[in-house]
Each structure stands twice: as C-alpha cells, then as structure tokens.
Amino acid sequence: MAYDIDMIKKVYSQMADRVNKAREVVGKPLTLSEKILYSHLWDGETSKAYERGKDYVEFAPDRIACQDATAQMALLQFMQAGKKQVAVPTTVHCDHLIQAKMGAAIDLQSANKSSSEVFDFLESVSNKYGIGFWKPGAGIIHQVVLENYAFPGGMMIGTDSHTVNAGGLGMVAIGVGGADAVDVMAGMAWELKFPKLIGVKLTGKLSGWTAPKDVILKVAGILTVKGGTGAIIEYFGEGATAMSCTGKGTICNMGAEVGATTSTFGYDDSMARYLKATNRTDVAEAANAVREHLTGDDEVYANPEQYFDEVIEINLSELRPHLNGPFTPDLATPISEMAVKAKQEDWPINVDWGLIGSCTNSSYEDLTRAASIAKQAVDKKIKAKSDFGINPGSEQIRFTAERDGLLQIFEDLDATVFTNACGPCIGQWDRSDRKGDEKNTIVHSFNRNFSKRADGNPNTHAFVGSPEMVAAIAISGRLDFDPTRDKLINEDGEEVMLDEPKGIELPTKGFAVEDAGYIAPKEDGSSVEVKVAEDSERLQLLTPFEPWDGENLTGVKLLIKALGKCTTDHISMAGPWLRYRGHLDNISNNCLIGAINAYNKKTNFVKNQLTGEFDGVPAVQREYKKAGVPTIVVGDHNYGEGSSREHAAMEPRHLGVKVVLVKSFARIHETNLKKQGMLGITFDNEADYDLIQEDDTFNFIDLKDFAPDKQLTIEVVHADGSKDTIKANHTYNEPQIAWYRKGSALNLIKEQNAA
C-alpha cells in the first residue's frame, strides 16, 4: 500500500467538482496544469479565473519533501513556529551530505561519522514533529519521492529546485525555499503567482541513441536558462505517452534549468505501470477512476496555440542526441556537430570522467541503457579511456541493479559505484585525479554544469548528456566521439562500433530491497528532545530578524556589483560549505564569494568604503554590519538562478545587507528574499545598471510609501557628489509587504500563532 493513501483518495474525491467548476468559471477547456492548480486552491472551488503571470494565488499543497542540506534551516525555522506537528505529510531525505570518493561503503561510513550531528538532529526533529525520515544511503530525494510519494494530479513543494522531477508522475511539484515549506508545515496557505503555460508537443517516437534526456537538452537550447521563468511546461502528444515514467521524470527534472516553475505530463499507461511496479497499485486504481481529470482536455491538445502562452513542437523521430555545455545547461550541441564545435571553442577533447546518476538520471531504466553500452565495451574488448562513476538513485534501485547484474557490468569496466546520493552532481566529490585548476573535460548525466559545480575547478568543462551517451563518450575518452558513426580500436587492434543502447523500462523480476532506509516518526513526538549544542559549528538555533522601522533607507553603501551570471552557487556555494547549512553565521562566510566584482573582475575581492581597502565579501560586509551601515547588492539578469537554497537569501540578510537590486530575478530566489524580509527589486531601466559606481551611496527616498505596483525611487550619490535618480520595480503584494514590515515571513507566522 502507498504512503498517505487516504490523503491521495481525498484529493481525487474532490477533483471532479473542482475541475468542473474551474472549467465553468474559466469558460474554456483546461490544461492539466490548470486542473491541478485550480483543484488545489486554499479556498476550495474557484470563483474567479486567475490571470497567468499576474495574480498571486494561495494554494494547499498535498505534501512536502526536504533534502538534508536545506532541511536543517527549514526545520530550525519550523521549530520557531510553535506547532506540535506538521500539518501535511512531510519527509526528510539525507542525500546531500555524502561525499563521493572511494566507493559506496567507505563513503557512507565516512559521512555517517563526519555528519552524525546533523543526521541525528534531522532524525530527532523529524521524530518529534511527525516527519518521515530517510536515512543516509536511502537514496536521492527526487528518485525516492518518485518511487514512494508522487501521484498523478497531486501538488507538492520541496526544498530543492529539482522537486519538479515528480512531474514525471503527473504532479505539479515545485521547488521552494525552506520558509515556504515552513508556511505549509505550519498549516498555512502557500502563495504563488499563477504561472504562465508553455506547451511542448512531442510527436514521433524516440529510438536508437536518442533518449528522454535529449528532449530537455533540446528544450533548454530553445528556451535558454530563463525562458521558462514564471511558467509551467506541460508535455503532451503521442511522443509523450510513448515514453516511460522515469523518462518523463528526467525531462521534468531538468526543466529547472530553464527557470520553469515546474513541468508535468498527463497521466497515462506508463505511469500506471510504474505505480504498480513500485507497489502502489492502490494509487493506480484510484487514479484510473478519475483519469479524465489527470490530463489536459482533448480540445487543448488538439489546438494548443489557443490554450498555451507558448507552444514548442519536437518530432522525436528526428531528434538527435545532444551534449549541453560547458558552464551552462542551455548551450545545446548535437553530438554530430560536437567535433567541429569543440575545435572552434578550444574545448579540451580528452574526457577524464564519465559520471552517471544524480536525481536526473538514476532510474533502473537509465542504468540498463548505460549498462548495455558498458557491456559491449567489455565484450568487444574496448578498454575505457575515462574514469567512471555511478550513483544509483535509491537503495531499491541499487539492490535491484545488483541482483540483476547491472552493477557488476560497470565494475568490470573499473567503474566506481558511489553511494545512493547526489555526490558529484552537487559538488560532493573528492576528485583525486587532478590537482590545481587544470583545464579538463568531464561528461555527466546530471542537470547542472555551472563553473566549479562538480569539483570546484573553474576550468573543468562539464557537459550534460544521457546516461548511454555519457557511457559511450567515457569509453572512447573523447568529447568529439559520435557513437552513431565513429569506430573504436579494441585491445586486439580491431575496429569496432558500439551498437545502439537497449534499456529495460521496469525490472522483469520486480523491484527488490532489504532495507529501503525509511524511519517512521512517533505518533506522539512530544517527549522527543531535539538537541543543538551551543558550541556546535554545524547547527545554530535561529534568532529572528529585526523588523523594518518603517522609515526610508538612506546612506546605503554598495557591497558588490555582480557581473554576469550570479547563481545561487555564486551567492552561497555548495561543496565543502554544505557542512554549515544548519549554522547561519558560519555559512555566511561564503556569502557572495563566487560573484564576479564588476569593477576588478575578481571574485571575493571588494572595496570597503569605510577604509578604502579591499577584502573578501563576507569580511567587508561584517565590517559594515559592525558599523551599522546598510548595504546593497547589485546584479545582472536572472540573479539567483539555480538551486532553491534559501541560504543565498538568509546569508546577506544575516550579515546586514538590506537590498538586492538586479536586472531580473530567478523565481525561487526572489521569493526567498521576500520571505527573509529583504528588499528584492529590479531596475526599471536596465541600462541604469551601468550607472552604478564602486563608491556609490544609495538613498531610498520614498520607501515609507512602499505599496503594491508602486515604483521605488532611488537617489544614487557618486563619490564626486554628483547624483543620478533611478526607478526600481518590485512584485510585492500586500501580504509580502507585511513580511517585509515584520522582518520576515516567519516573524509574521509566529505572531499569528501566538495571537
């Protein structure tokens, strides 16, 4: 039986009435996304048609998922909310704090030792507040969710940007910051601007070397890293229904890389097969009873241009394998063009590593397709030229893959099987084959390939591809290898070619596992004590942020003007900093250390206007805070792109930054700033970014009149006494302005709970 089956049946029991009412109010056929959104309104049945991209709407998500790195701060905040138990089903998954180095057994043992304090905290706080706990080694959060919790037509939020993976099972699943999750845990509504809709029509059928990953690699090339911002991407068509459930999950997972709110597919037979294979026949039967409401209306898919804000059509029969990168996930290159492109761009041709896994591509089917290539290499006496690393998605997948001989195939190719965890995908990789910052190339089946992402080296050129393509390229050892036409020389000196990959959608013997790694919470956790040592360097109880005094903000100094791409990795790096995710003051020592200073083109080297000297960003900001000087961060387009980590908003707030002024925000980061009581605003005229000088002082002369849809006026005073007056826009509504006034959304929640 599925987890939370009664909750799922309740969702389905309400769906018909809510969808029919929404169709009546909207006055036209509905997409799947609209059906799920309208059936999860906080107030129940809708009485109005919401305007996409404009109206803020309150929703009631069905469940929450948290990974260990973000769960720490989320649960530290929840502990302040004054609640005895979470209001909706919630789980915590320990997958981020396990470093890949030697192999699964040794690495897991090392993580349990080095992060025992954090794991013990998460287990105890989960036990106390009724939260399901998945222990270290149980698997990667999004694969575990797909196997156990995702259900068609549901809505969930998760404290990780790749929560969107659950769209592979027909959910609207959205990555959020921990403060958003705390609202829902505390029994409050969750607010989201009603998304725009992008329809992707898939015709034809995948075959040969082309995989579901190539669909999203193609889409990323079309939309770019910000083309999906504020929108749900809904896939449909014959090509969609012909694809496996986990293949759909891969596509939805990487939708985060185009900035999409989430991505989803309509319920079909592949989802039913997957539910039954993962011991959720009860969910499949319940879904079948409301099947018509778990996909878009026929008229929508017949005439998509009338119902979506944008429509993309991809013929899967014509789609070819891609590699995306380096340094950005939207630089799409067909494999057939890589040889010419790599030479033009002077990308390193020799490939050092091939990495298979991550939440994007670690399903049983993924492993079988990659293993079919690896087995050919063994059988045809081809020695792999690159190192191999494998991260299974869950203990259930690892156990089943081992039983079926898949892992042995990789080991015969001298691959290292890492723990069922994120590992290199999020920078948790102790890469011993390189020292320093040598220019090099790796290929992986992950989702992100930002500079320094995997191994901390800014000169590592990381390329994203399907598991089978990663396997083929790693075996060849060359970035310009095209397995559809190129030959390899085996150990006998013979020319051989790799045959097309073959995959198995679901294990023929069924999934198996001895210990999945789940620990259920106590029904009554009131007696459970959650301990946080006062001298801990890993965990720190939170102190509420100070409320706004209601006055104009004046005398604001520039901390840094960030040049170009500034992702959450630049604002709050992962890798070795993950150990401090539960200690706000300690992790704040990485605040903006990856951002490029627009004036000297260096990282972590900014001018202290109080002394005229240069130092690291956190050190300079701590001096400003000590002196009581408010500061501002200025940024470029899509500021805060990437992970949902709220630390990227909490760290500047903790250190005393008052304002973030940019050309445009990534959705999750903008919300995180609002939740933490920060002023996140955008240039009305993007060219005003160029007016900002290193020694500037900013005066917000009408902040006292802060109101929805009202521009803010900023006086920019230059060092020579000259001034520029600029306008800034914001998207705060009345409830969000209330967060700002109170100092944070959590402060307001506590006040309401105390009333």
UniProtKB/TrEMBL annotation:
Pathway: Carbohydrate metabolism; tricarboxylic acid cycle; isocitrate from oxaloacetate: step 2/2
Enzyme class, UniProt record, top EC level: lyase
Enzyme Commission no: 4.2.1.3
Lineage: superkingdom: Bacteria
Endpoints of the signal sequence: none
The keyword Ligase is annotated on this UniProt entry: no
Positions of the Aconitase A/isopropylmalate dehydratase small subunit swivel domain: 558-686
Coiled coil stretches, renumbered: none
Catalytic activity: citrate = D-threo-isocitrate
Cofactor requirements of the protein: [4Fe-4S] cluster
Pfam families on file: Aconitase, Aconitase_C
Alphabetized GO MF terms: aconitate hydratase activity
Boundaries of every Aconitase/3-isopropylmalate dehydratase large subunit alpha/beta/alpha domain copy: 35-477
Keyword Signal: no
Sorted UniProt keywords: Iron, Iron-sulfur, Lyase, Metal-binding, Transit peptide, Tricarboxylic acid cycle
Transmembrane segments: none
InterPro entries noted in UniProt: Acnase/IPM_dHydase_lsu_aba_1/3, Acoase/IPM_deHydtase_lsu_aba, Aconitase/3IPM_dehydase_swvl, Aconitase/IPM_isomerase, Aconitase_4Fe-4S_BS, Aconitase_4Fe-4S_dom, Aconitase_dom2, Aconitase_mito-like
Family label: Belongs to the aconitase/IPM isomerase family.
The protein, known as: Aconitate hydratase A
